UniProtKB/TrEMBL annotation:
It comes from the Eukaryota. InterPro entries: NAD(P)-bd_dom_sf (IPR036291), SDR_enzymes (IPR052184), SDR_fam (IPR002347). This is Uncharacterized protein. Pfam families: adh_short. GO terms for molecular function: oxidoreductase activity, acting on the CH-OH group of donors, NAD or NADP as acceptor. Gene3D superfamilies: NAD(P)-binding Rossmann-like Domain.
Length: 269
C-alpha cells in the first residue's frame, strides 16, 4: 500500500521501524545500511518478510545514496511515500561536556565534524536525492529522527552539558528540516523532525564502570528535566508512538517543518 525508505536499519530504532512497517504485507520497505550482508541475515532470522529490501549505503556517501534511489525507483515506478532519516552517530563523547572535551581541541573538532557529516549532511543529501521520488509518491512525508537534546529549552532546564556534538548536529538537522519544508510544503510534502524519546537501544555501548557512572549522571539530568522519567522506554513502544505521529501529522495540520516529540508535546521524556 505504501513505500518507506529508512536509514540505519541494522539495529535499534531503525530495525524496529523495519519490523513494524513490514507487518503490513502490502507495504514495501527499503532499509539502508552500512553492512548489507549482516543486516540481511538478521532480517531473515528475526523478521523474514519478502516486502523488505536491504540496500548498501553509508549516508555520508552521496554516490551510494544516488544508487539507492535508482534501486528504489526501479522497484516503485519512480515514487516513494515516506522517508525516515534515522541513521545517526552518537559517540561516547556524549557522556561528557565541553569542559572535558576542551583538553583535546583537535579531537573535539573531529567529533563535531563526524556528527555533523552523519547526523546533518547525511540527511540533507538523502532528502535531496529522494525528493523527486517523494514528489511522485502519495503520502509525501519526509521525517528526520531528532532528539530532545537538541532543544535549548530542555538543555537549559536541567543544565544538560552532555552530548555536545550530537545535540548540535541534531539542532542543525531540525533547521535543515525547516528549510526543506520552506521549499516543499507548498508542493504538499510534510517535512518534520521527531524525537523518539529516550529509547533502550544501547546506542552508547557502555562498557566500563566509569562510562556507566557518566551515563547514570546523564539520566539524572533527564530526571531533573522531567521528574516522571523512569528510564528509557522499549524500542517497540517508541517506534509505535513515532509512527502514530507520522500517520497523524499533515502539512495543513500545523506540523510542516516542525520539530516535536513522539508524544506530540513536551517534555520529550
Ligand atoms: N536511543 C535513544 O535514546 C534516542 C533518543 C533520541 C533520539 N534518538 C535517535 O533515534 C535514532 C536511532 O537511534 P538508535 O538508538 O537506534 O541508534 P543506534 O542503536 O546507535 O543505531 C544507529 C543506526 O544508524 C546507523 N548509522 C550510523 N552511521 C551511519 C552512516 N554513516 N550511514 C548509514 N547508517 C549509519 C547504524 O549503523 P551501523 O550498524 O552500521 O553502525 C545504526 O543502524 C537516531 O537518529 C538517534 O539520534 C535515539
Amino acid at each position: 500500500m505504501s513505500s518507506y525508505l529508512i536509514t540505519g536499519v541494522s539495529r535499534g530504532v531503525g530495525f524496529e521501524f523495519l519490523r513494524q512497517l513490514s507487518e503490513n504485507p502490502a507495504n514495501t520497505v527499503f532499509g539502508l545500511v552500512r553492512n548489507k550482508a549482516a543486516t540481511e541475515s538478521k532480517v531473515a532470522a528475526e523478521i523474514g518478510r519478502e516486502n523488505i529490501h536491504i540496500i548498501q549505503a553509508d549516508t555520508t556517501d552521496y554516490v551510494a545514496l544516488e544508487k539507492a534511489a535508482q534501486f528504489v525507483s526501479e522497484k516503485t515506478n519512480g515514487a516513494l511515500d515516506y522517508i525516515i532519516a534515522n541513521a545517526a552517530l552518537q559517540a561516547k563523547t556524549a557522556l561528557v561536556g565541553f569542559d572535558t572535551l576542551s583538553s583535546d581541541p583537535g579531537a573535539l573538532e573531529q567529533d563535531l565534524i563526524d556528527h555533523f557529516r552523519i547526523n546533518t549532511i547525511g540527511a540533507i543529501h538523502l532528502f535531496n536525492i529522494f525528493m523527486p521520488l517523494i514528489l511522485r509518491g502519495r503520502a509525501k512525508k519526509v521525517i528526520a529522527i531528532s532528539t530532545g537534546m537538541s532543544d535549548p529549552e530542555m538543555t537549559l532546564k536541567a543544565d544538560i552539558f552532555q552530548a555536545t556534538s550530537y545535540a548540535i548536529s541534531k539542532a542543525a538537522l531540525n533547521m535543515a528540516v525547516a528549510k526543506f519544508s520552506a521549499i516543499y510544503r507548498e508542493k504538499g510534502v510534510l517535512c518534520m523532525a521527531i524525537c523518539p524519546g529516550a529509547v533502550n537501544t544501547g546506542s552508547l555501548q557502555i562498557e566500563t564502570e566509569e562510562e556507566g557512572q557518566l551515563a547514570m549522571a546523564m539520566f539524572g539530568k533527564f530526571k531533573q528535566y522531567s521528574p516522571t522519567f523512569e528510564g528509557p522506554q522499549k524500542t517497540e513502544d517508541s517506534v509505535k508512538s513515532v509512527l502514530a505521529l507520522v500517520n497523524k501529522a499533515t502539512v495543513d495540520g500545523g506540523y510542516a517543518g516542525t520539530f516535536i516529540s513522539h508524544t506530540g508535546g513536551k517534555p520529550y521524556l
